[in-house]
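Q: For a teaching handout, I want to show students what a protein-ligand complex looks like in token form. Below are the inputs, and the small molecule is iron/sulfur cluster. Please produce the holo structure.
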Amino acid sequence: MLGKKIKNGNIEDTLNRFLKDDQHLVLGFEKGENGVSLRAFKNYLDHYSLLNPIFSTNGALHLRRLFSKGTKIILMLRPCEIRAYIELIKLNQIEREDIIAVSIDCFGALSSKDKTDDIPAEADQLREYFKKTDTMRWACKVCRERRGVVGDAGIRIDRDGLFWAFSYTEKGDSFLSLIEGEPEESRTEMLMSGSEKQDQFQNDMKTFSKDFAKCTMCMNCRDMCPVCYCIDCVFNGDEYLPKGDALLNKILRSGPVQLPQGKELFHFIRMYHVSQTCVGCGACEEACPQGIPLTKYFKGISERLQGMFSYMSGRSFDESIPYLTFLEDELKNAED
Amino acid sequence: MLQDKAEKNPEIIGFACSYCTFKASEMAGSLRMKYPEGVKLIQVPCSSRVDPAFVIKAIFEGADGVFVAGCHPGDCHFIKGNYFTRRKIAALKEMFDAFSMKDKLRLFWVSAAEARRFIDKVTTMYNEIKERKNVREKN
Ligand code: SF4
Ligand code: SF4
Ligand code: SF4
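A: Here is the structure, written as tokens, with iron/sulfur cluster included.
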């Protein structure tokens, strides 16, 4: 494949050149005293880090309802973040015209809740680190796409440890043209190959009750999910989860309830609502104060339901979200 | 006799499109055909109006079964609503299947003229769920 080789410091120079314009922004990672974190850069890059080995939120979360044209933005994010960004475009939550989305090969990440002070942010060291310890988040261990192959362009690492930039769309071409040097054929294989297929998710209500026993219904998982985007969520009013008088009436009408109520309701409905758009990033689990294994459920269900339509969230800009389209002749076995 | 009393009657919620299945249920009524009392119909303007959230709510708030019913594919009053219904409900069934509760949900196509088909579909569903429910409660 034709790409551009990235020499040391090359990416920083490229992004810095881009940032000279006052109307240009870069969303990427920053190395700070307290580890690596997400940062929106303006004017120049400071302590830029290509990789982010610590997962706290999904960067696409911050792009929801971004409609302004005229400000050019380059996203330098993980594949799961770019995939969520792509799903949000399909849901009309982002105007993509002035955004260039670059996905970067990802070696996995630690949870921000874990001890993170000794984790390196360089590719080769990070690989060694994860070989030695078993601290990688579960979501990353079973990640569906950790290669920088989604979005407008990708940063990939080959087997010799060299970095490459590849373009996938016209906007990707313009990103590559910002990088110094001429495009060349990459002959070495890339370090990272596609992910293994996971077993189909299967569960039962008993295990569900056990796993969610400690859920407090704080709804952080919903709020931190990049693709759970409804402004007027069904769980905000009294219809699904009544409070106060409405709750009292419900109890008087239909009997005692355990409080907090509606765990099944909340998680099942959310699981369904994000079933085609969930990118399996595990931001929900990361946000959960109670340590509920949310990724297992949300990633599991979404992969199973996406599989029915040979769909994969965020894989391409053009594939329609399955619930928004249909074939006249299909799914006969769903009819009773 | 005692045995009979102990038998549990299921409750089934049906979301019925007002252009077809709901009409069929009205026709069944005017023809004095009977269907089980435990079947409660909710009229919707089109089967595609049914957000799977409604189905999930019905199930976790006590319904033993839920069906979504609309016009036969190709006959939707809104031209293609029921094709979306089929996708959404098929996916919901798959999700229920993952939690071993697929038997709780059904999808019917019943036109306004098919009163007999309506009675057959809901009665069969009712009886099967009743049987399963009582087997489960005896064990
Ligand atoms: S889920 Fe995948 S892409 Fe996201 S941080 Fe983990 S390994 Fe990287
Ligand atoms: S449900 Fe969880 S894993 Fe899926 S996209 Fe939302 S935050 Fe990520
Ligand atoms: S974040 Fe955790 S505790 Fe809060 S609602 Fe979600 S699963 Fe429950």
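A: Two things your students might notice: The CA atoms of residues 51 and 118 of chain B lie 22 Å apart. Chain B touches chain A at residues 51-53, 56-57, 60-62, 67, 73-74, 80, 83-84, 86-95, 98-101, 106-109, 121, 125 (CB under 8 Å).
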